[in-house]
Amino acid sequence: MLEVISPELARRIVARDEQPGDDWHPDYPFADELDPLRSLAAASGTEPVFTMYLIRRQSDNLAVGGIGFFGPPDGTGTVEFGYGLVPSARGAGLATEAVELALRHAADNGARAAMADTAIANLASRRVLETNGFVEVERRAALVYYRRDLV
């Protein structure tokens, strides 16, 4: 379900240069993912583990979103991440499953805790995080911040 996005693949996604086997949903990438993809596309080298991943829907193998880390764990072992799905793929449990997989991957590679934030009004995203064991730790402006220990 998760597939690493290399800098070369990020360049093709941004340019919408779809090749056989890419199988991108017509609405992918969505606007919120373009800036992180552009940053990854411009990178000469990448963090091999704490990077960006495509989220593929198993029923049709379409890439319907992405999940990514904002770098490796910090000095306390905490990693921050974000995720999103094209609107038509929401509500089917894909984000919950992708977060679970990404957290397991992070823990297996040395992360001790994870952080994420979402809009206070984004109840679906808040449910995804809470279902995955995150607890609210702070609210600032229109954002709510969550944390979860991984060990």
What does this structure look like?
- The chain is globular, with a radius of gyration of 15 Å.
- It has helices spanning 7-15, 31-42, 94-108, 123-131, and strands spanning 2-4, 52-56, 63-69, 78-85, 113-119, 135-140, 143-149.
- It has one domain (2-112).
- It has 4 helices and 7 strands.
- The model has no long low-confidence stretch (mean pLDDT 95).
- The longest helix has 15 residues, at 94-108.
Poorly predicted tracts of residues: none
**Can you count the beta strands?**
7
What pattern of helices and strands is seen along the backbone? EHHEEEHEHEE
The largest β sheet comes out as: 7 strands, mixed
Percentage of residues assigned to helices: 25-40%
- Overall domain count: 1
Radius of gyration: 15 Å
User: For the residues shown, what is the average pLDDT?
Assistant: 95
Feature tags:
7-stranded mixed sheet, 28% strand, 151 residues, alpha+beta, globular
Quick overview:
With 151 residues, this protein is of the alpha+beta class.
Task: Walk me through the topology.
Blueprint: E1 2-4, H1 7-15, H2 31-42, E2 52-56, E3 63-69, E4 78-85, H3 94-108, E5 113-119, H4 123-131, E6 135-140, E7 143-149
Parallel strand pairs: 4-5
Antiparallel strand pairs: 1-2, 2-3, 3-4, 5-7, 6-7
